[in-house]
Amino acid sequence: MKKRVFLCGLLMLMACFTVAAQQTQQAQQPLTFWYEYHVNPGKEDEFLTLVKTVGQPVRDKLMAEGVVLAWGVEAPMLRVPENATHMIWYTVADYAGLEKVDTALREQIAKVTAEPAKAPAGKKGAATAGNGPMARMQEITDFGKTHDYLTRDLVSGFASAMPPAGTLPFIRYVFVKVRPGKGAEYRKAWEKYNKPIFDKLAADGTILAFGLAVEDVRTDGDFTHYTWIATKDLGSQDKVRAAVLGDRDKRSPEEQDAIIQLFANLTDPDAARSELNRSLIFHLPTPK
């Protein structure tokens, strides 16, 4: 039982759903920018409204232009004290794309903030600059706890067909802290023992996408690598678990022990943690 629990927690590994052709993504190792927010209780709808009216037009426009590869909003299914309640993310091919999104969002915020000042004084509905999107965000969230991340996919895989429009994936993440100087060995072990399982599950449509990622700009050092798997429903996560356990069970006891020891030597087991998120908004490019 201990062996099974360890395998599920450390080797099953799973988060965010980027899109584009698999070979292109693999070669480019795309970047994902994350905004983690602590939304105040009762302000969840206001938060999503702000996302849809300010950020969504920018990200959708840049996605149509091929700059943004995918974007979405997620919320954890498990409430954990001090953890973020909502995450906004978008994926781009490179830093040039990141700059385009950042510039466009800053221009959008400035535009929306300035619009109320143009309304005639005393006109019904007129607002002030103090009610701009950044001011509203500070009212809606515990803004001092906001944490941004910039991550890069080292390896990724995708189902052969895009999910139906309106799909809101569930994403499982496992974060690990690889020991200093062991990053290359960890990736090699991950690709040898985990990727073939995920490739097969992507090919048969059980999972929508998966990847192994790292922080491209290190922040607080809670983790060094994380694996993500996106599925169309939670039931598919059961199938992923069964596939991982099935792969290990068919191996000899000696090989199973060797795999466990390998990952234990490459990582700090006490630093491992996982999350299970649901998508609240999930946008992919329109098929051409």
Task: Describe the 3D structure.
There is one protein chain. With 288 residues, this protein is an alpha+beta fold. The chain has a single domain (2-283), classed as Alpha-Beta Plaits, CATH 3.30.70. Helix content is 40%, strand content 23%. The protein is built from 9 helices and 8 strands. The protein has helices at 2-11, 22-28, 44-64, 95-114, 133-140, 183-193, 195-203, 235-249, 253-266; strands at 31-37, 68-76, 86-92, 147-158, 170-176, 209-215, 225-231, 273-283. An 8-stranded antiparallel beta barrel has the order 1-3-2-8-5-7-6-4, surrounded by 5 helices. α1 (2-11) packs across α8. It is globular. It starts with a helix and ends in a 5-residue tail after the last strand.
Order of helical and strand elements? HHEHEEHHEEHHEEHHE
Total of helices: 9
Q: Helical residue percent?
A: 25-40%
Give the integer mean of the pLDDT values.
Answer: 88
- Structural class per helix/strand content? alpha+beta
How far the N terminus sits from the C terminus, by CA atoms, comes to 48 Å
Q: Give the name of the CATH architecture.
A: 2-Layer Sandwich
Number of DSSP-assigned strands: 8
Radius of gyration: 21 Å
Strand order of the largest sheet: 1-3-2-8-5-7-6-4
CATH topology, what is it called?
Answer: Alpha-Beta Plaits
Any idea how many domains? 1
Low-confidence stretches: 1-26, 122-129
How would a textbook summarize the main sheet? 8 strands, antiparallel, barrel
Shape designation: globular
